[in-house]
Amino acid sequence: MFHAADLLLINKVDLLPYVKFDVDAAIGYARRVRPGLEVIRVAATTGEGFDAWLAWLERGAALARARRGASVDALRHRIAELEAQLAAQGRGA
Fold this sequence. Notes:
Layout: E1 7-10, H1 23-33, E2 38-41, H2 50-92
Parallel strand pairs: 1-2
């Protein structure tokens, strides 16, 4: 699961004092599988981590838009190349 993950979102961190769960160990295990894994701890009751999570989502959306734009530009360029080849073939026939 963590091999392909870019983010480990740990929710309900406000409940950690009341449960038996070692967050640091969990993060350590996940990073054994995916070194450099980004971790954000969130709690809906306090709002902890939500700014970081939203910023992470915004960065991902901006990256996706940039990739999509680059893909569209590459396709337009390739179409123009193919149209030019067809036009050249039509002139040579």
